[in-house]
Structure formats: C-alpha cells, structure tokens
Design goal:
- It contains eight helices and nine strands.
- The protein is an alpha/beta fold.
- It has a single domain, classed as Rossmann fold (3-Layer(aba) Sandwich).
- Helix 1 links the parallel strand 1 and strand 2.
- Helix 3 packs parallel to helix 4.
- InterPro entries: KR_dom (IPR057326), NAD(P)-bd_dom_sf (IPR036291), Sc_DH/Rdtase_CS (IPR020904), SDR (IPR050259), SDR_fam (IPR002347).
Length: 275
C-alpha cells in the first residue's frame, strides 16, 4: 500500500535525536524522502542510517541552523538530490533558562536565533523554489500543496517563568506561522505550528547525578528538569503523564498529509489536555 507521503521531499531540522528523529521516522514510514539535520554529525548520520535500513531515502545536512549560509545549504540539499521540496519542519532548538535579572544578552539572542531566526531564514531560502514550482503547477492546471510545520511550545502560548527568551521565541514562531500562511497561501503552502507541552526527551527528563548538559558551539548548557518539578507537572496533565517523542511526531505528521490541505495558519497545542 502506498504511503500518504510517497515521493514527497521533507526537510527536518534537529532530527538526529528526540522529537525530530521521530518526525523523520514517521514521515519516512509514509514514503517521504528526508533531509536529516543535527548539530552534530554522529546523531544526524545515525538517523540517516536508520531511515535507509527501513528502506527510505535519506541524506544528512548536518550543522548549526543559526550559522550564515546554513538555510541555503539545507534547502539545496533536497532540491539538488531529489529535484524538489514539499515539506519543511522547523524543529531544531534547545533551552537556556534563567530569570530575567540573570539572563545575559547572549542567552537571549542564542535562543531567539535558533527558535525564530533560523526558521525564518530556512523559509526565506525556500521561497524562490516554492514560487517557481507553484507557478509552473498552476500553469498546468494542477493544485499541489506543500507543508511547513513550525515547532512552538506551550511556553510560547501561555508563557513560563524563567524562560523569557524561550517563551518569546516560541510566541514569535506562531506569529511567523500566521504571517507566512497568508503570504504563501497563493502558492498552496499550508503553514502551521505545533506547540508541545511536556514531552519526555533529553532536554526535559530528570538530569543524572551531577546534572546533564549539551554542547552548543563549545559551550556546555545545563538541561533537564528536576524530578520533583517533573512529578508536579505530570500531575497537572489530564492524561496523567508527559508525552512521548513518537506521539509528538504524530501531531506534526497530521499537518503534513493531504487531509490537512485546507488547514493553515493554525497552532495545535499538544500537551495531554493541560491548558
């Protein structure tokens, strides 16, 4: 049986691990060809190998999504390899929390750059191909829909103490989503966002003894949530637990399939029922 995304070409940033990896696996399972990205070569290449092992077509375009020139390289990877571009999932990111009086300019700009500026640049880099492809398809009397899914957060919807930078960036991505839904509607591009609540990944799970960190451009940044905070958060979720990465990926998939062709400019909150 043919998959719902057979032949579609998808770019998924931050897809070497966690939610992004599961998004890549889900899209590939439905026939998409995937350009995988991770900050580090190891996880990105491992995801590519996993996709190929399941019979999917995949390539890696690893690197820092905030670096100059990355967006153009990312978009070109899909076009140069397979001749097209159908789906963009802007997923890459991390958190770097602090209360406002202790938050540095570096923290502020780093989080806005990865969660808001990078998706803007990727969409900007894709515009020429999307415009030309849409015009050609229209001249042939064909209606072809393309998809952009931007990853937001309940921190961007409701705000979260200690996350002024992250909350602002994730609120901003919703504004960018709504603007681009209107700007690209004429090209038959659905632009939507998914706002995740508590999803259990390396960025949210309780840190090991001594704390957990990630390396961002040579800087070690603490990640993880204290066990007591996790327990409290899960008690407030009507479904009784944090979400799994594959469940998060399923919500992104909904915005990538033909059934969502008449849905655009929306933010879907995926938080287990927690307001």
């Amino acid at each position: 049986m043919a998959g719902k995304l057979d032949g579609k070409i998808a770019l998924v940033s931050g897809s070497g691990r966690g939610i992004g990896r599961q998004i890549a696996l889900k899209l590939a399972s439905e026939g998409a060809r995937v350009v995988v990205n991770d900050l580090d070569d190891g996880p990105g290449n491992e995801t590519v190998a996993e996709l190929r092992a399941m019979g999917a077509e995949a390539i890696a375009c690893n690197g820092d999504v905030t670096q100059d020139g990355f967006a153009e390289r990312f978009v070109a990877a899909g076009i140069d390899t397979w001749g097209g571009l159908d789906i963009i999932v802007n997923n890459a990111g991390y958190t770097w929390d602090n209360v406002i009086q202790k938050m540095t300019d570096e923290q502020w700009h780093a989080i806005l750059n990865v969660h808001l500026t990078a998706p803007f640049r990727i969409m900007r880099a894709a515009q020429r191909f999307i415009r030309e492809a849409a015009r050609q398809e229209a001249s042939e009397g064909r209606e072809v829909f393309r998809k952009v899914v931007n990853i937001s957060s309940t921190s961007g919807v409701f705000g979260n103490a200690g996350q002024a930078n992250y909350s602002t960036a994730k609120a901003g991505i919703q504004g960018l989503t709504r603007a681009m839904a209107k700007e690209w509607g004429r090209y038959k591009v659905n632009v939507n966002a998914v706002a995740f609540g508590l999803i259990m990944t390396r960025l949210t799970e309780a840190p090991a003894h001594g704390g957990a960190t990630i390396d961002i451009s040579g800087r070690e940044i603490a990640v993880g949530v204290r066990p007591e905070v996790l327990q409290t958060a899960e008690k407030l979720i009507p479904l009784g637990r944090g979400g799994r990465p594959e469940e998060a990926a399923g919500s992104v998939y909904l915005f990538c399939i033909p059934e969502s062709n008449y849905v655009t400019g929306q933010t879907l909150v995926v938080a287990g029922g927690r307001p």
